[in-house]
Amino acid sequence: MSQFEFISKKPEDTMAFSERLGSLLQPGDVLALEGDLGAGKTTFTKGLAKGLNITRNVNSPTFTIIKEYYGRLPLYHMDVYRVEDSFEDLGFDEYFEGNGVTVVEWAHLIKEQLPEELLTIYLYLDESGSRKIVLEPKGERFEELCKEIMS
Ligand code: ADP
Ligand code: MG
C-alpha cells in the first residue's frame, strides 16, 4: 500500500495542504481522518471546506456527530468519537454513497461501515509541535489523487 507524507509546521500549512486537496475532490469521495485529540483533524477539515468553496465556519461536530455544509459540493463532516458501537447504524451509507464529500474524524471507530475505497489521512503531533500528515489511499481514484497532490 502506498503512503505519501507531508510535514506541517503550523495550522496554516495544514489548511493550505487540505485546501488544495479539497479543490480536487469529487462527488462521493470519502476521507478518513485519524489522529489524537488536538492533532489537527478539524483544522484539516477547515482547509478542505475552503477548497470546496464553503464559506461557513467549520467547527467540531463532536456532539452532533454529523454536520453538513454546502459549497462547490456538499461536505458531510462527521466526528464519530462518541459512537459507542462500531456497528451502530446512523445512516452513514447514505452519506458515503451521496453526491457530497464525506470526512470522518476517528473513522476507525466505525471501520466495519466504511466504504472499500477511501483516502485515510493520519495526523501525528510530534514534540516540536509540528504535524506529520500521512496519506494512505485505497483504490485507483485516491492513488491518482495523492500523486497529483504530492506532485
Ligand atoms: P482534532 O480535531 O484532531 O482534535 P483540532 O484541529 O481541533 O484537532 O486542533 C488542533 C490544534 O492544534 C488547533 O488549535 C491548531 O491551531 C493547533 N495546531 C498547531 N500546529 C498545527 C498544525 N501544524 N496543523 C494543525 N493544527 C495545528
Ligand atoms: Mg476534531
TrEMBL record:
Q: Which keywords fit this entry according to its UniProt record?
A: ATP-binding, Cytoplasm, Magnesium, Metal-binding, Nucleotide-binding, tRNA processing
What domain of life does the UniProt record list for this protein's source?
Bacteria
Q: What are the record's GO terms for cellular component?
A: cytoplasm
| GO aspect biological process, one term | tRNA threonylcarbamoyladenosine modification
Q: Name one GO molecular function term.
A: ATP binding
User: What is the annotated localization of this protein?
Assistant: Cytoplasm
Q: Which family does it belong to?
A: Belongs to the TsaE family.
The protein's name: tRNA threonylcarbamoyladenosine biosynthesis protein TsaE
